[in-house]
Specification:
- By secondary structure, the chain is mainly β.
- It has one domain.
- Helices cover 14% and strands 43% of the residues.
- It is built from four helices and 17 strands.
- The two termini are 22 Å apart.
- Belongs to the UreD family.
């Protein structure tokens, strides 16, 4: 752990966390999708591009990793992913990301996604794991051109490594989906504090993990909401799915008793959606 990361995990009120922005750009070239640009400063790290789908050799798969052991107090990390016209890419993480104890200022994780015309992008990070005292703000912005197909997930679960039931501090999440002209198609925002999340009267009931699946594209090309719900229910999650506003696509919400069950539910939906949008069976991703 770097000295800065170590300081960011402490309780000093004047801590300034890390500021870093990573950028990945996928483009089509030579009959395949290639990673044409990668700017991945610490704590980001990426593997080489893998070809995991023999029936779709043009599809690039990439693992995104963290070199620091998680998100620390007052960090502000940004990830920008672009799939240029005609590109097809699948980006995932190697494991869940731990969010450590925070302070008055939130730890921030921003994601900006741009999907070009006739491109396909799947971005499916493992759930964020909120430790006691974590104060996290997550913001996701998506821009999709005509003909673009996208599969996006996010999820959070709370965990007390001491074996107790201490809650995180606060969680804020926002989503903005727009077209290339800047017209906003979908906008939402939610906030909840940890004690309310974990309380017996929690709006999540007895569930302690929450996830979202977003599918962008023509609704007639997407799985039926009832099919998505059945897939998640089959692995022990409580799910609801419905069309997004302005014909943007489809959204699904999942509640689960814990992070492991949430991951299983999201994986089930990703497999179904991936087959539908990419036209091939998703490869087994070793983690």
């Amino acid at each position: 752990m770097s000295s800065l990361a170590a300081r960011a995990s402490g309780d000093s009120p004047d801590v300034v966390g890390r500021r870093a922005e990573a950028r990945l750009v996928f483009a089509r070239g030579g009959g395949a999708t290639v990673l044409t640009r990668q700017h991945v400063p610490y704590p980001f790290h990426v593997t080489r591009v893998f070809r995991l789908h023999p029936e779709a050799p043009d599809l690039a798969s990439l693992y995104l990793q963290s070199a620091s052991g998680g998100l620390y107090r007052s960090d502000h990390l940004t990830l920008a992913i672009e799939a240029r016209p005609g590109a097809r890419a699948f980006v995932t993480t190697q494991a869940g990301t731990v969010v450590h104890r925070g302070g008055p200022l939130p730890t921030r994780q921003d994601t900006r996604v741009r999907v070009g015309a006739d491109a396909f992008l799947a971005y499916t990070p493992d759930p964020l794991i909120l430790f006691p005292g974590a104060n996290l703000s997550v913001a996701t912005e998506v821009e999709a051109e005509p003909g673009a197909l996208a599969l996006l997930t996010e999820g959070v679960a709370c965990h007390d490594p001491s074996g107790g039931s201490l809650p995180f501090d606060r969680l804020s999440m926002s989503l903005r989906i727009a077209d290339p002209s800047g017209r906003v198609l979908v906008r939402e925002r939610s906030e909840i504090d940890g004690p309310a999340f974990s309380d017996s009267a929690s709006p999540l009931g007895g569930h302690r993990a929450y996830g979202t699946l977003i599918l962008l594209g023509p609704v007639d090309l997407l799985p039926a909401p009832r099919v998505l719900q059945a897939e998640a229910d089959a692995v022990g999650c409580l799910a609801g799915a419905s069309p997004l506003p302005n014909g943007a696509g489809l959204g699904a919400r999942l509640l689960a008793p814990d992070g492991g069950r949430l991951s299983a539910g999201l994986d089930a939906l990703v497999r179904l959606a991936f087959r539908t949008l990419s036209g091939c069976e998703p490869a087994r991703r070793r983690k």
